[in-house]
Amino acid sequence: MTERYTLHEDPRSGNCYKIKLTAALLGIRLETRQYDIMAGETRTPEFLANVNRNGRIPVLQIEEGEQTRFLPESNAACWYLASVSALIPEGKFAQADMLRWMFFEQYNHEPNVATLRFWLRFVGEGNLSEQQKQMLPAKRAAGIDALNVMEEHLKSARWMAGGAVTLADIALFPYTHVAEEGGFGLDDYPAIKDWIGQMQSLPGFIPMD
Prior knowledge:
Layout: E1 4-9, H1 14-26, E2 31-34, H2 45-50, E3 59-64, E4 67-72, H3 74-82, H4 92-123, H5 130-154, H6 167-177, H7 190-200
Parallel strand pairs: 1-2
Antiparallel strand pairs: 1-3, 3-4
Helix pairs in contact: 1-3, 1-6, 4-5, 4-6, 5-7, 6-7
């Protein structure tokens, strides 16, 4: 029985984009339902009751026959779509290595690179709280550290894991390629810039909205 997919998303979100990019590279049809997180549309009683009680997107809605299931968390949704595909490498170590970069993205990269992009582009530095303003230097330093880790890896590797494009690359690409919107200069990272070009040249690639 064929599954049908709907992505509950805000198109400004890199976490939502990574799911759309996974689907595009695999030729999977993906419908979307859009929410404005700035307007609190993922915190309504309806959303909390029917889509994700954690009040966050993205959420992948999976329909098969009469059954409808909801899968939150971007990397989990990417894994679901890519299971039994070349985006998950063969071999126990290669798969674990891919996962460690996906964990790195959520723990080291996204909380800093993505957060500064959101604060500076969408909230505006003048609208930040005093607490957020105090966090800016630490967020910037941690974001630079994360980009440096990627740069050093990509100096000697074409892809993040497994010798070919995998979910590790898809997880890290969205917020890396727009890092300049958070004040990070990508000209300082030539290996990352080459990798970004490789990602954009993949068959089926779609740009971020």
